[in-house]
Recover the amino acids of this structure.
């Protein structure tokens, strides 16, 4: 898989590698099989080993890498930290590509403590920025996703990922991008290209066409810097959990939740997960009881849910703001949920501190293991909502892993290393009960037919839409289960398109499913833009290019 | 000015016109001098008469118009309602263009009363949508700008204009664009190009590159439809005014106002105008007293300010939300302004209704004319903040008009008709007192040197930035004053760039000032995109193309 297709290409690759070694030094150009294999690890069973890995240290390195690649027509595949979990990790979409690992470019170039923004490079991780803000006593938090402390802001944002604070709709918190185009030119968006502009990182649009969107979910260039807005630390902060007893209780609550989101009482990005998501965070699939299936029988699932003391769905979120406002919003949330069977739990810091003490006590005494776990989950949740990233929520990915959780499971979980099977299908749905009910039912039927549990989360990404994530968890060490999972993914994505709910983000495997017809003017326009911004087609060929891409070549 | 440059072009124009007449019918193709003169009216003394005006009735008409224009290489200049006041009105940037007046395309194609969005065409005006929502009893308001009831949403949004409600940052309230490209192809952005997609108007980004930004401040295509998010009518709504006694009081308040904006206590787009803005809304420049100058002497200005009972600056805004939250936000605003000389006036509907009654009474009795005026201003303001557009704030544009306000001045004010002189320079500033102080001082010095009053408004466009507008009001019927004004504009824009505060929006005259150097990679990229999206360069040549555009031709 990792080999270059023909002798001519192999020759130019060698020549390009020689130039890159001259540019970066031997140590920053990896070609050893073991290194390449490491980058090829994936949770999605769509491994594509690169032919080499380059590790630039600066924007200028990236420019030179691109110029050399252009000359030799060698395809490059930029990654930030390579943790695009559930969507393809660090893997290129096609074979024969040279990974550009931007992890060394991890400078926090600037933080403005008055206006509340950071200027960061692609290697800057959630943990790094979070710790920097705390150490420097800067009165702002960073938005966090559940992808873990080592994931990159830029990597996530160029995929249009989202977090869970009021700044969770992350693409709206970027101002001023620096992009090395496929031509090798350096583009500064917004006001950034005006010498001495003082407004590059506070107003994204600049003057003239607004281009930032072009460098999200695309392959036109390599983003080497962004301005990222930070969340002002509120006077008061209160995370909450809501447990909905049954599906109907969640569906019944959706109109009220939408009303609260529209009125900006809920002004962060609440996360709603089904019981399976919660169960998977507490331990792996009960293989011993069920050696021959990857799906929990309904009765057992009900029983596990009861034992864990959870409902069919759990919503998590937080309130931010002046003290009196947080009090008011707490009351409004409780009022809004009066009509359904839902338990609302507020987790202000006083409760969490007490809880942590109780959890430690339980651990020491070896009692109530479920309680300790719950309290740790609540703490992780509160952290994530207040700028402290956590790897806690990644442990759900071990659901189908043989042998369950690894002994060294910690905050630095590397899902790809552990050969997990994990694929995410993420459609956008209107924030309406009926859409959610129908899509959940259709997806559950499809998962059931393939023999899988349907893990679901639903995120209130904006005031009108839900970003749903249907997760296939499978045993990647079992060939048959893997084949079922891949089939489930492809059928699932097709089903979502055909029902009118396209996915908002594609995995390496999903790229070929993006275009409904060969002559879709949208994807034709994407091809036209590619021809201008990356005329040799060297940046990440196949990435966010439609099915018609294959026909073109 | 309005003539075509050479006989060959004239021949192709005739041929194109014949085809357009066949397509649209005689009545929708205007070439009479009087019609062309009407479209050439402008407040910016940069009139460019078109060579013809086309009035399509549908998206398909636009497609055919573009295809014909492509064949004959006839430049088109799309306008929605042509009310780009202060920035060039309906005028093309260059001579020899055919205006495509989209005003007949004024269908409200859909309103979703549950999810709160409208799907509208370019001719839909603020008044039209506002009245439709009220008549249909739809529980949403539309965001309004001060540009008057007849201005177009799409026209304003593609210029990245802003309004003053919580949905005032208008580009963030658009989801799903339909664009006729310069190629004649129809592009649907976001999820719109997926047949049967149910999420086009609730999640703007779709999957793949996000392109909407390309069709703002550009000349790549003609936007024929957008999805526009509507503001849910809040439980409680309270407009407010804050009068700052002197400049220092505003500057002193800026950090506190920024804090409130960041904490989303101020979560709309407050508008802050200097005394001149308020004086200009109340009556014209005192020409009788001052026949030989266009600038008020400081003493007179102070005196007029005192007589009008206003401060150096007046901020207007509104609170929206649950009743208890509005009460809280009112208190927090008052608290935040304790350290400066500022008078806070809240205008809940009860006060406004009483006020309107008092105003009518005063009018009938012929007493207290100032009071009636103030109450009308407050009502207009409250309307604008709650989805009812007003032409009230346009009357300030008559400041230098000979003879003052026209007898028929009403809500439908057409500034271009009245041959006013009005040019806006709109830089973005960091939301910091020091930047505002310095830029205000520099601009006032420049205006003074040119002999003009410096009318200023400052809008808290987002949580970190101010959109300032420095307005040159001049007597367009006086050649000397006009020449000074044009010089003031060009010097002002240069000054803003050189100080690091580029403008966020250009007038027809400002297009040539956009590029600092010929080889700016940003504007080179714009040229590249133009070549793909509009290969014949027929859409609005010169619009948001940089100075280098001229060199290219």
């Amino acid at each position: 898989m990792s080999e270059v297709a023909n002798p001519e290409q192999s020759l130019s690759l060698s020549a390009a590698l020689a130039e890159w070694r001259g540019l970066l030094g031997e140590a920053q150009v990896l070609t050893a099989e073991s290194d390449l294999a490491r980058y090829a690890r994936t949770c999605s069973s769509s491994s594509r080993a690169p032919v080499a890995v380059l590790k630039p240290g600066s924007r200028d390195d990236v420019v030179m890498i691109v110029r050399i690649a252009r000359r030799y027509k060698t395809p490059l595949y930029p990654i930030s930290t390579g943790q695009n979990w559930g969507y393809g990790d660090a893997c290129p979409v096609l074979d024969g590509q040279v990974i550009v690992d931007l992890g060394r470019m991890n400078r926090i170039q600037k933080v403005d403590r008055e206006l509340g923004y950071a200027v960061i490079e692609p290697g800057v991780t959630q943990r790094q920025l979070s710790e920097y803000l705390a150490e420097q006593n800067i009165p702002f938090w960073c938005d966090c996703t559940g992808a873990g402390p080592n994931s990159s802001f830029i990597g996530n944002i160029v995929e249009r990922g989202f977090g869970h604070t009021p700044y969770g709709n992350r693409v709206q918190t970027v101002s001023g991008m620096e992009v090395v185009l496929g031509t090798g030119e350096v583009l500064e968006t917004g006001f950034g290209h005006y010498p001495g502009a003082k407004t590059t990182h506070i107003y994204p649009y600049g003057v003239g066409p607004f281009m930032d969107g072009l460098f999200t979910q695309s392959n036109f260039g390599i983003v080497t810097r962004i301005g990222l807005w930070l969340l002002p630390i509120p006077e008061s902060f209160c995370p909450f959990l809501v447990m909905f007893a049954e599906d109907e209780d969640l569906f019944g609550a959706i109109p009220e939740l939408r009303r609260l989101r529209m009125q900006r009482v809920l002004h962060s990005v609440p996360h709603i997960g089904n019981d399976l998501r919660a169960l998977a965070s507490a331990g792996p699939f009960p293989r011993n009881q069920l050696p021959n299936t990857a799906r929990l029988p309904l009765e057992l699932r009900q029983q596990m849910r009861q034992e864990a003391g959870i409902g069919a769905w759990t919503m998590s979120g937080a309130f931010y703001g002046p003290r009196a406002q947080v009090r008011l919003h707490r009351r409004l949330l409780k009022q809004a949920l009066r009509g359904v069977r839902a338990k609302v739990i507020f987790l202000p810091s006083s409760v969490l501190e007490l809880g942590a003490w109780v959890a430690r006590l339980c651990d020491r005494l070896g009692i109530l293991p479920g309680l300790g776990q719950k309290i740790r989950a609540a703490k992780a949740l509160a952290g994530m909502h207040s700028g402290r990233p956590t790897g806690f929520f990644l442990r759900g990915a071990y659901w189908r892993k043989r042998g369950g959780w690894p002994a060294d499971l910690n905050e630095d979980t590397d899902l790809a290393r552990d050969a997990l099977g994990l694929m995410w299908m993420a459609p956008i749905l209107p924030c309406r009960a009926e859409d959610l009910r129908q899509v959940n039912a259709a997806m559950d039927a499809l998962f059931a037919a393939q023999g899988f549990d349907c893990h679901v989360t639903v995120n209130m990404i904006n005031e009108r839409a839900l970003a749903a994530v249907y997760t296939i968890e499978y045993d990647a060490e079992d060939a048959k289960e893997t084949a079922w999972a891949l089939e489930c993914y492809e059928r699932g994505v097709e089903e979502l398109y055909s029902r009118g709910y396209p996915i908002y983000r594609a995995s390496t495997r999903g790229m070929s499913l993006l275009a409904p017809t060969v002559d879709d003017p949208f994807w034709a326009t994407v091809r036209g833009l590619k021809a201008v911004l990356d005329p040799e087609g060297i940046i990440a060929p196949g990435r966010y290019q439609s099915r018609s891409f294959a026909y073109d070549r």
